[in-house]
Write a structure and sequence with these properties.
1 helix, 73 residues, two-stranded antiparallel sheet, alpha+beta, SH3 type barrels, single chain, 3-stranded antiparallel β-sheet
């Protein structure tokens, strides 16, 4: 069975706090769909190590990290 690709995402929260997670593409797409669909309340985001509950009403942005490997700053 092939292992699913893990993606790095950043979730921006109210008061300029951020939450950085490593999730599967399916988890990213599900979270993005919930935000684009105007869902509210709590959303479970499965990560590599655990599950994170995110209050969708507090999310100000969702960012997908580049898959490029970079060196330096």
């Amino acid at each position: 069975m092939a292992e699913e690709e893990i993606r790095r995402i950043t979730i921006g929260l109210v008061a300029m706090q951020v939450l950085e997670l490593r999730v599967t593409d399916a988890a990213y797409q599900e979270l993005r769909g919930a935000l684009e669909g105007g869902a509210s309340g709590w959303h479970v985001v499965p990560t590599q190590d655990s599950e994170v509950l995110v209050d969708l009403s507090k999310v100000t942005y969702l960012s997908l990290a580049s898959q490029e490997h970079r060196v330096g700053f």
